[in-house]
Design goal:
single chain, alpha/beta, Rossmann fold, five-stranded parallel β-sheet, 14% strand, globular, binds N-carbamoyl-L-aspartate
Length: 331
């Protein structure tokens, strides 16, 4: 049996066994949550536990799905969204600010525009724990700069796993990642997980200015995951089992000379009958809302999956003994 993860910081930490375990737990939570007895059993799982939500970079889905996940598990939460309302304005470092949270919480979920801050915080806690044994908080990366967004990648894997469960699973599928692949942290984190699904093929569709970074391409090469780079969305939609759209990340920094690649209603006609379209959201014009009625567009299902998967992640981190305690009898 693998060593338990203490923190969730980057996609490279996951192996197939853990991905399968989290997907199974997510399905269990979704099913159990449908009955009152089941919902109550889940609410008793983490009574007295608290999460701290340190979100100094904007968030709609990640923040709210973690809040909802805490509610599902009967946990409370504390929150800092604006560093201007914390002692960081007095010159306190982000790490001290996070360490303060650790004094009150069992898990710290962090989003920051600083790449690596979650990892830095986790390393700091691990180093200091012998001196401050009450600082036991698990760190969860909720998005670190342009670097990684591992819990988004987990909910994306769950969405793919559900979509292809009767068609041989994720293995062997062709996945097109489209848009700003250079600065989008969701596609970076998802690309790392592909190594656990044999025979997956990736198509990176982007304008030249937004191509996937070399570190990811080197990782894929090292693990023999075939990928190609193109600007031709039509050709990719024609052959893909999943089309993963992303927006241009121009809130982070402006990149001149590149326009987004658009998925429009006409693409629905060339999309395979069993293929799916995903998007981490927020979207802009790159995925036309007129497509939303099509059952192959999974973007709202993906959001919902996020709440259950994040509940599974928190449960995995905080429940070290029996993963189904109190839930065996409820369905
Ligand atoms: C993404 C993010 O924050 O990286 N959003 C999300 O968490 N669902 C994608 C984005 O902002 O484009």
């Amino acid at each position: 049996m693998r060593e338990r993860l203490y923190h969730v910081l980057e996609s490279q930490q996951f192996d197939r066994e853990l991905l399968d375990h989290l997907c199974a737990l997510t399905t269990r939570f979704r099913e159990v949550g449908k009955t009152t007895e089941g919902a109550l059993a889940m609410k008793r799982r983490h009574v007295g536990k608290r999460a701290a939500l340190y979100f100094t970079q904007v968030s709609t889905r990640t923040l709210n799905s973690f809040r909802a996940a805490c509610q599902v598990l009967g946990m409370d939460w504390l929150e800092i969204s604006d560093p201007n309302t914390s002692s960081e304005v007095k010159g306190e470092s982000p790490i001290d600010s996070v360490a303060t949270f650790a004094s009150y919480a069992d898990a710290i979920i962090m989003r920051s525009k600083l790449p690596g801050l979650a990892k830095q915080a986790a390393e700091y806690f691990d180093r200091e724990r012998p001196f401050r044994p009450w600082h036991t908080a698990h760190v969860v990366n909720g998005g670190s700069g342009q670097d990684q967004h591992p819990t988004q990648a987990l909910l994306d894997i769950y969405t793919l796993y559900r979509a292809f469960r009767e068609r041989g699973g994720i293995e062997g599928k062709t996945i097109a990642m489209v848009g700003d692949l250079k600065r989008g942290r969701t596609v970076r984190s998802l690309a790392y997980l592909m190594r656990h699904y044999p025979d997956v093929r990736l198509i990176f569709v982007s304008p030249p200015a937004f191509q996937m970074e070399e570190d990811i391409k080197a990782f894929l090469q090292k693990h023999n995951i075939p990928f190609e780079e193109t600007e031709d969305l039509d050709a990719a939609v024609n052959v893909a089992d999943a089309v993963y759209m992303t927006r241009v990340q121009d809130d982070l920094d402006k990149e001149k000379g590149a326009t987004p690649i658009f998925f429009q209603e006409r693409h629905l006609k060339i999309l395979g009958p069993h293929a799916i379209v995903m998007h981490p959201l927020p979207r802009r014009e790159e995925l036309d809302p007129a497509c939303d009625h099509d059952p192959r567009i999974k973007i709202w299902r993906q959001e919902r999956n996020g709440m259950w998967m994040r509940a599974a992640v928190l449960d995995y981190l905080l429940k070290e003994n029996d993963p189904l305690e109190g839930m065996r009898e409820v369905a």
